[in-house]
Structures are given as structure tokens and as C-alpha cells.
């Protein structure tokens, strides 16, 4: 069990598995290499993307998320909103397209406009995936299993990140090759996702309160 939650305990308990650190470092280096090759690539995009890497490396709350509900919800918020937003604003897909050679760009353009990709980034698909992930991991036994199995917990984190990215690609209108949604429709999409989050959070709080009363 971790020490009481303090700044010293959080910083002293920080660690990253070596394979994960290697993947994150390689990703950051690859992004920076591509950014240097693309003339005029905005520094802000690079800063947003590196912020995602920093979030992933400094996952200092992971040990406390399994025993403190408040920390657990903060971690979920970071994984499904903050990190995906930084990733989307970092525009890695645009960077790959800009950095690719003349032969690769037509292929990337066709891939981005293909039916599977267009279906995946459709607003209804994005909202459906977001809803299934949030509801499925909070209102089913999945959450308890993820607390016991580290591998399942990592899968849960990846699902949050993917669901958040799909949704925020359409909300921000930052996806390459897809038509930008009207502002009102983007607000409706964001509000619907907030409703899903609120239902999951309130259900989690009610479940935690019921557990406390049961064991008093």
C-alpha cells in the first residue's frame, strides 16, 4: 500500500517501466525529428504533443488511483480529456502528412478519406465509442477487475485515451481530411459527452457511498 498522499510521497514513488519509457522517448524523438524537417511547423503544436509525453511519463497518481476514489476520477479525467486534448492539438497526423515524401502523401490522403477511417471519425461513432468506454468501465464489474489486474488497468487507460482522441478530433475540428463540423454541432457533441461523464461519476460516487455504509 502506498504512503499517505503527499507531494513527497508522489514524487518519491514516481517510476516508469523501462519498455514504456523507451516507447515514449522514441515517440518524442520521432516527433521532434519530423517537426524539424517541416518548415514553419508551429512550436505550439510541438509543446502540446510533448505535454502528452510528460503526462504519460509522470503518471505519479497511478499507485493512489486504486485506493482513493477522488484520485481515481482525476486520473480518468486526465486520460480521457486532458491527454487526448493535448494529443489532438499536437496534430501528429498533420505532421506525418507534412513530413512524408511526395510518394507517400497520396497514399496517406487516400487512407484518410477511406470509408473505414471516415466511419471511425464520424461524430456518432465517436460519441458511441466514448459512451461505451465510460459506461462500460464505470457501471460494470470491469472497474473492479481493472483494479486487481495491472494488464487490464493498462488496457483501460488505452481505451480512455483512444475514446477521448476520437471525440476531441471532431469537437476541435483538428482532424485532417474530414469536413469541419458546424460550431453548434460540436457544442452538442461536447455536451452529450459531458452528460455521459456526469452519469458515470454520480453512479461511482453512489456506489462508493453504498460500500462505505455496508462496511461500517
TrEMBL record:
Domain of life: Bacteria
Listed InterPro entries: Caa3_assmbl_CtaG-rel
TM region(s), chain numbering: 12-34, 46-64, 76-96, 117-138, 185-206
Membrane topology: Multi-pass membrane protein
Keyword Transmembrane helix among record annotations: yes
Subcellular location: Cell membrane
Pfam family, one: Caa3_CtaG
Main location: membrane
Protein keywords: Cell membrane, Membrane, Transmembrane, Transmembrane helix
Name of the protein: Cytochrome c oxidase assembly factor CtaG
Naturally occurring in which organism (per UniProt): Amycolatopsis thermophila
Lineage: Bacteria, Bacillati, Actinomycetota, Actinomycetes, Pseudonocardiales
Amino acid at each position: 500500500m502506498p504512503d499517505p498522499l503527499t507531494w513527497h510521497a508522489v514524487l518519491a514513488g514516481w517510476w516508469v517501466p523501462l519498455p514504456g519509457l523507451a516507447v515514449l522517448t522514441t515517440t518524442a524523438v520521432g516527433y521532434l525529428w519530423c517537426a524539424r524537417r517541416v518548415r514553419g511547423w508551429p512550436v505550439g503544436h510541438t509543446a502540446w504533443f510533448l505535454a502528452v509525453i510528460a503526462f504519460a511519463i509522470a503518471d505519479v497518481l497511478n499507485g493512489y488511483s486504486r485506493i482513493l476514489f477522488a484520485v481515481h476520477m482525476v486520473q480518468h479525467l486526465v486520460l480521457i480529456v486532458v491527454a487526448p486534448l493535448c494529443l489532438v492539438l499536437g496534430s501528429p497526423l498533420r505532421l506525418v502528412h507534412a513530413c512524408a515524401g511526395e510518394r507517400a502523401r497520396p497514399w496517406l490522403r487516400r487512407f484518410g478519406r477511406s470509408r473505414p477511417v471516415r466511419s471511425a471519425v464520424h461524430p456518432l461513432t465517436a460519441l458511441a465509442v466514448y459512451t461505451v468506454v465510460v459506461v462500460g468501465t464505470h457501471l460494470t464489474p470491469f472497474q473492479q477487475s481493472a483494479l486487481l489486474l495491472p494488464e487490464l488497468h493498462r488496457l483501460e487507460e488505452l481505451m480512455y485515451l483512444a475514446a477521448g482522441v476520437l471525440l476531441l478530433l471532431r469537437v476541435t475540428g483538428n482532424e485532417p481530411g474530414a469536413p469541419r463540423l458546424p460550431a453548434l454541432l460540436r457544442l452538442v457533441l461536447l455536451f452529450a459527452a459531458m452528460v455521459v461523464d456526469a452519469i458515470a461519476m454520480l453512479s461511482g460516487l453512489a456506489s462508493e457511498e453504498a460500500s462505505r455504509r455496508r462496511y461500517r
